[in-house]
Amino acid sequence: MRIRKAVIPAGGWGTRFLPATKAQPKEMLPIVDKPTIQFIVEEAVASGIEDIIIITSHTKKAIEDHFDRSIQLEMELERSRKRELLETVRSISDMANIYYIRQKEALGLGHAIACARTFIGKEPFAVLLGDDVVMGGEPALKQLIEIYQRTGYSVLGVQPVPMPEVNKYGIVAPEQPFRDRVCRVRDLVEKPAEKDAPSNVAIMGRYVLTPSIFQLLESQKPGAGGEIQLTDALHNLLSMEPIYACQFSGRRYDVGDKVGYLAASVEVALAHPEISAQALDYLARLALDKNQPLHKAIARLVKQRVDGKDAGSPNEGK
Ligand code: G1P
Description:
alpha/beta; single chain; binds 1-O-phosphono-alpha-D-glucopyranose; 12 helices; 13 strands; two-stranded antiparallel sheet; 21% strand
């Protein structure tokens, strides 16, 4: 069956980003010049999704305005002959069919997904979490959909994390070692303590789910953090049908975290057609200036690497 519909939960408070999120949705914070939720919607569309439902709350009107047409702005851009900007603005409202449901109480991710039951009906569907932005290569969701087409069962997007970070994620116990980036899931647990974690394979905000999840979500009791957890309902789904995990390729950023957000912004800036050269020049100058902390940090990292004490690639982390 084709995956045509996607759910994007966007009801949370964004407390990790206060005060920036006091009066605007965290999903509208721009990564350079594009709101984070637009990256998510673009990934869904590039993965073949046609209908998107965004689960919002009362503070999220700006998201609806962003994906709607703005006739006044279009007229102004037309009048001032800003053709390229006009195209950009128009294309946002033509991207996909986007619908909205309000989650009346913030009872957790599982509850947010359950709100989409009527909209989804009896089809398999995708879920994309707004805090996880994935860049580079084939869209992450598309990779999961390909596995769904082969298996016919739910697929979770995963990546390994350092063991001390397992308590920030849903963690998967693989049935057997990954083969071609895929494995069957034996068990899964939401935000375990490091000592209880069955592995370091973390769920990274991308899911393809069979509609059987809805009946489980409806009777799901609150779990970690007192919230109705999607991971707990998936744990129960395992006794009814198989679940697969797909270790998708791509660089994933937790843009709900300040450092993850900064890292995503640097990546986008360095690839941005208008500002990449200037951004690179700015960073290079900071790195060369002996009075700047960046210069000292680089010297420290170079020394650690020479001494064999540096782990290597940066950790965008949660
Ligand atoms: C949610 C999920 C968790 C997943 C994480 C990915 O947690 O509950 O299983 O690993 O997203 O970002 P949250 O970060 O919303 O607490």
